[in-house]
From TrEMBL:
Keywords: Glycoprotein, Secreted, Serine protease homolog, Signal. The keyword Transcription regulation does not apply. Its main location: secreted. It comes from Salvelinus namaycush (Lake trout). It is found in: Secreted. The lineage of its organism: Eukaryota, Metazoa, Chordata, Craniata, Vertebrata. This is Inactive serine protease 35.
Length: 429
């Protein structure tokens, strides 16, 4: 399926809301449509030590192999407090390549609501690939009128080839494997940039910005920004060349005329949990920690999406998740999708959303009512890790899965601290 009409997309989304409201009225239940209130533990820094500079030698990973899946993880013992503190310790890498390792302490874990273990069967039935199967159910948000409006505007593009979501004006949540392969940081992370969707420039009405790249007034953000915007636009010009070579792409070219453009900004520092790093997660649970937070050099004037904690997605009335990213097969376009969750564990979600490489790192979100209010609010409840080859039963047999990492109370506490710098602001989810 190519780019889908926005009218159709809005109609589908409106219908979903109507169905949810009618179901709520029919059951008389309100709690199941309300964000649950959670007490989360405190994750505090204990000690920070300097590490040697990274070499940025790793190659970006297209897909992950050997991940211990939901069924495999059921055989693993529950981590101890010491294990959790080890996994949640984190590495910070700065733009000049210097690194630090911060160990953490976890407090108040016994005060947290019991986190469900999930309801997964141990059967080895085949799963469907992340590659598009059957009818392509993705929607290309090619019109700036919609792609630069909330919630789509919270989606960002990572220069290593992934996607992410804005958690604050200066912080982006993405997948750890987009930055680090478990042994070293990927080569593109040395000069890491984040692309924010932008509306049509308010300057230079006579053109679309193509002829004004060299003018001084566009250098307000610095030479780096100018060069980065030039790279993005030059890439678009190359795609438009050779119009007669591929007639099949005629409709796609027409959509690209008004496709979103990006405002690129540099990343100041990146934080990755030790659970993802080699040796930090034993027994194959590294997939549970496939997330990272990027701190931008400059705050963005774009509405962000808050973090949320939900004990079970499958038990929600619709059991549906949403996420938007920049799939490689639709260059320059934001791609939105929604689907139901098939299985879940304490840390992972399996689902059948159509996606392509490039969508990894997208923020997975749902929409529920705020406690005591009639206002509905979207919150990020996971990170789309992408297509993974999973060791299902621990016997080495590999199967295809669509995997998202869940935001648990502990991960909420850690990510919230990275964003706010004060653990006392992160006690309630």
């Amino acid at each position: 399926m190519g780019p889908v009409h926005l009218c159709l997309l809005l109609s589908v989304m409106s219908l979903a809301v109507v169905v949810a409201v009618e179901a709520q009225e029919a059951t008389g239940g309100d709690d199941e449509y309300t964000w649950p209130q959670w007490k989360v533990p405190l994750v505090r820094n204990r000690r920070t030590v300097a590490l040697s500079s990274t070499g940025f030698t790793a190659k970006p990973q297209g897909e992950l192999n050997g991940t211990c899946g939901i069924e495999c993880q059921r055989r693993l013992p529950d981590p101890s407090l010491a294990d959790l503190e080890e996994f949640l310790s984190y590495e910070t890498v700065y733009e000049n390549g210097t690194r630090t390792l911060t160990s953490v302490s976890v407090q108040g874990l016994n005060e947290v609501n019991a986190w469900p273990a999930g309801n997964s069967s141990a059967s080895s039935k085949s799963r469907r690939r992340r590659e598009v199967y059957g009818t392509d159910t993705r929607f290309s948000i090619a019109d700036k009128q919609f792609s630069t409006k909330y919630p789509f505007s919270t989606s960002v593009k990572i220069s290593t080839g992934c996607s992410g979501v804005l958690l604050s004006p200066k912080h982006v949540l993405t997948a750890a494997h987009c930055i680090h392969d478990g042994q070293d940081y990927v080569s593109g992370a040395q000069k890491l940039r984040v692309g924010i969707l932008k509306e049509k420039s308010r300057r230079g009405k006579g053109g679309k910005g193509k002829r004004g790249r060299g003018k001084g007034k566009r250098r307000k953000g610095g030479e780096d920004k100018e060069e980065e915007e030039k790279e993005e636009k030059d890439g678009g010009k190359e795609r438009k060349g050779g119009k007669g070579k591929d007639r099949k792409s005629r409709s796609r070219r027409s959509a690209e005329v008004e496709k979103p453009s990006f405002r690129w900004t540099r990343v100041k520092q990146t934080q990755v949990p030790k659970g993802w790093l080699k040796g930090g997660a034993s027994g194959g649970v590294a997939a549970d920690y496939d997330y990272a937070v990027l701190e931008l050099k400059k705050a963005q004037k774009v509405k962000h999406m808050d973090l949320g904690v939900i004990p079970s997605v499958k038990k929600l009335p619709a059991g549906r998740i949403h996420f938007s990213g920049f799939d490689d097969d639709r260059p320059g376009n934001l791609v939105y999708r929604f689907c139901s969750v098939s299985e879940e564990s304490k840390d992972l979600l399996y689902q059948y959303c159509d996606a392509k490489p490039g969508s990894s790192g997208s923020g997975v979100y749902i929409r529920l009512k705020e406690p005591g209010k009639k206002k509905w609010k979207r919150k990020v409840i996971g990170v789309f890790s992408g297509h993974q080859w999973v060791d299902v039963n621990g016997n080495g047999a590999q199967q295809d899965y669509n995997v998202a990492v869940r935001i648990t109370p502990l991960k909420y506490a850690q990510i919230c601290y990275w964003v706010h710098g004060d653990s006392s602001e992160c006690r309630d989810a």
